[in-house]
Each structure stands twice: as structure tokens, then as C-alpha cells.
Design goal:
Elements (H helix, E strand, L loop, with lengths): L3 H10 L11 E5 L3 H13 L3 E5 L2 H10 L4 E5 L8 H7 L5 E5 L4 H8 L5 E4 L4 H36 L8 H15 L4 H13 L9 H4 L7 H8 L1 H9 L9 H6 L20 H15 L11 H13 L5 H12 L4
Parallel strand pairs: 1-2, 1-3, 3-4, 4-5
Length: 333
């Protein structure tokens, strides 16, 4: 069996992280051929691939054939501005706007239409390269994000193909957790950590034997200890993956309880991050309402009855349970 670290290394080798400058296609659009030539020369000297368009019409025609990674676009053209183009394309293609304008109204129009950056004219070559290099790094970060997601999907498939009864569990827990996080107004960074951490919460089950993971009858003490160890196994095998660090507490601690009766560390109260608490409740809720090898799915009414009983025992935060119930009543989940 491969370790998660070995699988991650293998996955990284299949995808090019070195999204080098020559792979970035930049369209330059300005009604001045001289300006276009100067910018193009500068960018090509720095290793970028470029194409030049002196009219919006030519730019639009080319985009229909091939989309660039980014567009360097002048705001003022001879007879109009590029505002309509920005409004039509800024959501699908990153646009860096160029302009001599200092007019507050024009600047407001530019910045309120989802451009990714702005370069004042006359353009300084160092500023141009800085802006483009910053954008290149953003593309590399997006590539990193996509690679992590592909890796997560591969691992989930590895786990869930072994057990028909838990197939889709991690995705459902992620969806439920994300909705709860948004409902209680956590910030976007926390929401994303919860969403992806929930996908990974059971990743340590790759280290649990099939004979234990798929057992229909009651588990022995030894077998139950092996199941419980999936939290530590997942944590230990992901700890060397820097990209997974934001999710480690969810992976390790999603079976902790506020009263300290959970595992593996017996954490109590505020020792358990809110992100972990949300995923823990979503995990229990999905387990209760899903068919398992040893029982049928429970009704929503029964599931919430159990959750509130466990709250009274000191296991959970009642505000999270109430948020989950509200979402359920609205049929959001």
C-alpha cells in the first residue's frame, strides 16, 4: 500500500507546477501600434508569449478562436472606451487595464468591473513586469489548488470504492459543513478550510484493513482501536504535505467532543476549533441519515433527536446543531 505522501509525490509528477512564462499567453490591445510594440518587446524579452491587437473588434475575433491567460487592455480607444468589452469578458478572462486617466469617474468604472489589475500610462517597464510576474504567480497558485483538488478526489475514490455504504460520505459532509459555516457567518477563508478539510476528514481510513472497515458485525476492542486510529494515521501521513496543513486539525480531531470524551486526544471545549466542531457534527449527521451495512438510514427527526441528546451530554455546540436544523428545514442540505 502506498502512503499518502507517496501518492501526493506521484500526483505532483503528473502535473506541471512550473507554469513558466512561456506558457502564459498575453493579448495586448491598444489603438497605438507604437505602444503595443513597446509592450510586446518588453514582455517577449522577459519570456512571455504575446499577440497584439490595435482594435477591440480584432481582439474579440481572436478570443473566439483562442482565449489568452490575460489581456493587457487600454481603456481609451480612438472613438470609444473598452468598458463594454471589460463588462462582457472580465468574468471569464483576466484583464489588466492600462490608462492615462486620472478622472475619478473613469477610474471608478474601471475598478468596479472585475479587472485583476491596473497600470497607469505612460507604462514603466519595471512596473509592467512586476504586474505580469505577480499575475503569473497567481496562475501558479491556482494550478496548485487544482492539483490538490485532483489529489483529494483520487484519495476519496481510493477510500470510497472499498465501501459502497460510505460512498459519497465525504462530499456530503463537505457540503453540509460549508453550508453551516456560511450560515453562521464565518469568513471565506474559514469556509474554504472547512469545505476542503471535510473532504479529507476520513483520509486516514486508507490505513484501515478491509476486514475491519467493512465488517458488518460488532468490532472487537482491537478492531475498534484500529478504526479510531484513522484520525492519527491521516494526520501523520499528511503532516509533511505543506498544502494540507490548514486541514490537519480537522483530519486529526473530527471525533473529539466538547466534554473531553472524544478521541484521539481527549480535547475539551475551546481546545477544539470551530472548524473541527462543524465538521464533526456534519459527519455524525450524515452517518445517521445514511444507510449503513448494519442499519437503514435514520429519519431527519430521529437524527436531530440524537444530536440534541448528545448536546445535553456535553458533546456538541447547540448553535451549530440549530444552524444545521434551520438549513435542513429550508431544504438547503
Amino acid at each position: 500500500m502506498h502512503t499518502i505522501s507517496e501518492l501526493w509525490e506521484k500526483q505532483c509528477k503528473t502535473i506541471d507546477f512550473n507554469h513558466t512564462k512561456k506558457n502564459i499567453l498575453i493579448y495586448i490591445s491598444d489603438d497605438s501600434q507604437i505602444v503595443c510594440s513597446v509592450i510586446e518587446k518588453n514582455l517577449k524579452e522577459n519570456g512571455f508569449t504575446t499577440e497584439v491587437f490595435t482594435t477591440i473588434e480584432k481582439l474579440v475575433d481572436r478570443i473566439k478562436i483562442k482565449k489568452p491567460d490575460v489581456i493587457l487592455l487600454d481603456f481609451y480607444f480612438e472613438e470609444s472606451t473598452s468598458l463594454e468589452f471589460i463588462q462582457n469578458y472580465a468574468q471569464s478572462i483576466p484583464i489588466i487595464c492600462m490608462s492615462t486617466t486620472e478622472n475619478p469617474d473613469d477610474l471608478n468604472l474601471i475598478f468596479n468591473n472585475q479587472i485583476v489589475d491596473f497600470i497607469p500610462k505612460p507604462i514603466h517597464s519595471d512596473i509592467l513586469c512586476l504586474k505580469i510576474n505577480n499575475f503569473t504567480r497567481r496562475i501558479e497558485q491556482m494550478k496548485d489548488f487544482e492539483t490538490i483538488q485532483v489529489f483529494i478526489d483520487s484519495l476519496l475514490y481510493t477510500i470510497e470504492i472499498r465501501d459502497i455504504y460510505t460512498r459519497g460520505h465525504s462530499e456530503r459532509v463537505s457540503c453540509i459543513s460549508e453550508h453551516i459555516a456560511k450560515y453562521i457567518s464565518l469568513d471565506e477563508q474559514q469556509v474554504q478550510i472547512i469545505k476542503r478539510g471535510a473532504l479529507l476528514h476520513d483520509i486516514g481510513k486508507v490505513g484501515v484493513r478491509d476486514s475491519v472497515l467493512l465488517k458488518a458485525g460488532s468490532l472487537s476492542n482491537e478492531e475498534f482501536a484500529e478504526i479510531k486510529n484513522h484520525t492519527v494515521f491521516g494526520y501523520n501521513t499528511c503532516i509533511n504535505l505543506n498544502s494540507f496543513h490548514p486541514y490537519l486539525s480537522i483530519i486529526r480531531s473530527h471525533h473529539e467532543k466538547l466534554d473531553g470524551s472524544g478521541y484521539p486526544d481527549g480535547l475539551k471545549g475551546s481546545e477544539i476549533p470551530i472548524e473541527v466542531q462543524i465538521v464533526s457534527i456534519a459527519d455524525v449527521f450524515d452517518a445517521l441519515t445514511s444507510k449503513r451495512v448494519y442499519r437503514d438510514a435514520l429519519s431527519l427527526e430521529t437524527a436531530f433527536k440524537i444530536l440534541f441528546e448528545e448536546y445535553k451530554k456535553g458533546f456538541w455546540d447547540v448553535e451549530i446543531i440549530n444552524a444545521l436544523r434551520s438549513l435542513s428545514e429550508k431544504k438547503t442540505i
